[in-house]
């Protein structure tokens, strides 16, 4: 995991499936558990889903809250 992966969790959306368009950080635990049982997709999306599953499973979701600032507050436009 790279530190920038945490920011990706609060900026990237799920590209397919039941929760298409929802932020990866906002995916429900049972959905992440399903991927853990059935297998994560390959590539970056699979890595991010796996990371989010670990965060959710260990009750660490609130650690992402500081990263959820509006882009203008992070110095982006």
The number of helices is 3
Rg, alpha carbons: 12 Å
Q: Roughly what fraction of the amino acids lie in strands?
A: under 5%
- Strand tally, please? 0
Average residue-wise pLDDT? 91
Largest sheet: none
Give the CA-CA distance, first to last residue.
26 Å
The general outline is globular
Give the ordered list of helices and strands: HHH
Low-confidence regions: none
Helix-strand makeup class: mainly alpha
Helix content: 40-55%
In total, how many domains does the architecture comprise?
A: 1
Give the gist of this structure.
The protein is an all-alpha fold and 77 residues long. The protein has three helices and no strands.
Q: Would you write up a description of this structure?
A:
It is a single chain. The chain has one domain (3-74). The protein is an all-alpha fold and 77 residues long. Helix 1 (3-9) packs across helix 3 (43-57) and helix 2 (29-38) packs across helix 3 (43-57). The protein has helices at residues 3-9, 29-38, 43-57. Helices cover 42% and strands 0% of the residues. The radius of gyration is 12 Å and the shape is globular. The protein has three helices and no strands.
